[in-house]
Amino acid sequence: MPLAECVPNISEGRRAFIVDQIVAAVRAVPGARVLDVSSDASHNRSVITMVGSADSLRSAVLALYAEAIASIDLRRHTGAHPRLGAIDVVPFVPIDGMTMGDCVTLAREIGALVGARFQLPVFLYEAAATTPARRNLADIRRGEFEGLPARLAQPDWAPDFGPATPHPSAGATVIGARMPLVAFNVNLSTSRLDVAKAIAAIVRESSGGLPSVKALGVPLADRGIAQVSMNLTNYQHTSIVRAFDAVSTEAARHGVSVLDSEIIGLVPAAALAGVSPERLLLAGFRDDQILETRLRHL
User: Fold this and answer.
1) Nearest CA to 215 among 260, 183, 193, 173?
2) Which of 99, 115, 180, 190 is the most exposed place for a label (fewest CB within 10 A)?
3) Which of 168, 61, 166 is nearest to 108 (CA)?
4) How does pLDDT run across 40-56, given as a tens digit for each residue?
């Protein structure tokens, strides 16, 4: 059976019982397999990785929205990571027998259902975007939850589906289709957020840095340090080790060292080919974070 990966990012990383309830709603759907759940208290965000057929993922994602909307109120949400909605972003990724076109179709079908069923503004992004201005997630999320009323009032920012007013507690959501990415964070031996932001500005593509790298400087309040949080949207353009070395080099210019790094969620085996966890100072990395390892045990 053709399979796709779906990686919802929800705006809850502190209340484990809420995350558990949302994951349980997904697990209750026949054919939908949850491969990984990663929560971060400082980001106040959880990343859920699931796989399934188009039909099972459709049902699982709708169940996730129902549970998350009932459980998460962004009016009382704070965290280091930017967020637009309670269910912030839901990408579909082709992995086995499904094409990018199949994932685009699925994203648009689910977007229409989510908008109508939950009265939630839905933006389509990446390969599913209906306009070039909405391909980039950061462009859609600019202004975050608090800026949604002003953003949605602009004619150019009418949502692809759903109402043109924010959901009172869940905000809006972004749904799309993309290739696999690597969520890779590097933690610095300083609490200075300005240093992390300066490094992020150097390494990210939009500032003239590394190709296919998105980066932010964020505080990790629970550890009293700052982090360079990156998405490598194409690890063939910029490898994990190249991103790590770039951050390390820039950190040294500021008199700062790298404490450790982390991969959030699952990673394709090819992205780690030829590099050891020790080389990257990866903290807590497990062999079962490799996507293909999880798929073999389905």
Assistant:
1) 183
2) 99
3) 61
4) 999 999 999 999 999 99
Is residue 254 annotated as a catalytic residue, yes or no?
A: no
Tokens 């190709």 sit on residue: 211
Contact between residue 211 and residue 242 where contact means Cβ atoms under 8 Å apart: no
Q: Please check whether residue 264 is in contact with residue 185, taking contact to mean a CB–CB distance below 8 angstroms.
A: yes
**pLDDT tens-digit map of 246-289:** 999 999 999 999 999 999 999 999 999 999 999 999 998 988 89
Q: Which of 43, 81, 237, 297 is catalytic?
A: 81
- Packing angle between helix 54-71 and helix 16-27, nearest 10 degrees? 150
Q: How far apart are CA 93 and CA 142, in angstroms?
A: 24
Domains of the chain: 3-177 (3.30.990.10), 182-296 (3.30.70.670)
- Structure token pair of residue 127: 């390969």
Q: Which helix (H) or strand (E) holds 187?
A: strand 182-188
Structure tokens, 195: 């240093």
**Closest C-alpha among 208, 267, 265, 202 to residue 228:** 202
Place of tokens 């999880």: 294
- What is the edge-to-edge ordering of all strands in the sheet holding 258-264? 213-220, 225-232, 182-188, 258-264
